[in-house]
Amino acid sequence: MKKVSYWLSLPLLYLIAILPFPVLYFLSDIFKILIFDIVGYRKQVILTNLRNSFPNKSEKEINEISVKFQRNFTDMLLECVKMLTLTQTQLARRFKITNPEFLLKLQENNRGIIGVVGHVINWEWAGLIQSQSSPHATMIIYKPLENTFFDKLVLNMRSKFGAVLVPMKLTLRKLIEYKNKPYILVLAGDQYPGKGENVYKTTFLNQTTYVFLGTERTAKMMDAAVVFCSIKKVKRGHYAVTFELLEEHPKATPDGVITEKHIRFLEEQIIDQPDTWLWSHKRWK
């Protein structure tokens, strides 16, 4: 069944991927109506997350952010499909790295870097542009899909410009392989980690929030500099990422400091462009 669904879906995915960008975004507007206005996909989750995160905003403001997020969400869905046919030239026109020399400076003397990113639209293209632009390895941690056919397709899309995709459970093995080599390992810092010994408790967007300590512990173990990857939406279909230093010498940093820093950076980014974060995610369970 998984194989059948894959082969039935593939022609449609490629049909969408070959569309010119203006037509792609017209289709995104239609998808927005279907997914959110008709089906009502997670609309209450989105509104609840927004209300709890911005208690001082009016209901009108909350709804305006929600509607903008919905369009951003369907834009990203189709931009991800577009990755099937996206060229390096097209990507370079639409996604800019504002300070690429910053990473190169940190990577001198074969230094590794841990890059923390939030689920800010479009984080998938951010991985592509970094791997396309850097002379050093860009490693992206991922959780394999259950459907092995789609998993292979997504891996090929994400790695088409040179990124090294690393299954979550093989992270340590890959890092040992790259010891004494310059690289950037990209980790999402805003996923729900559950509650346990390996989490950090803080306040994020006016709510008690648990954060996975993997970023901080990996940086200390590898003595890798930590940077925050700040993604901004410039206009529809155009983005920019700026790298900001969180900690250059993590081993000397007290526990919790790095995690608190990247949460505060992400919070500031979300407050600046609230409609670009993944509000449909059940972050607070």
Automatic annotation (TrEMBL):
One GO-annotated biological process of the protein: glycolipid biosynthetic process
Subcellular location: Cell inner membrane
Predominant place of localization: membrane
Superkingdom of the source species: Bacteria
Transmembrane segments: 6-27
Keyword flag Cell inner membrane: yes
A GO-annotated cellular component: plasma membrane
UniProt-recorded Gene Ontology molecular function terms: acyltransferase activity
Keywords: Acyltransferase, Cell inner membrane, Cell membrane, Membrane, Transferase, Transmembrane, Transmembrane helix
Cited InterPro entries: LipA_acyltrans (IPR004960)
Protein name according to UniProt: Lauroyl/myristoyl acyltransferase
Species of the source: Solitalea canadensis (strain ATCC 29591 / DSM 3403 / JCM 21819 / LMG 8368 / NBRC 15130 / NCIMB 12057 / USAM 9D)
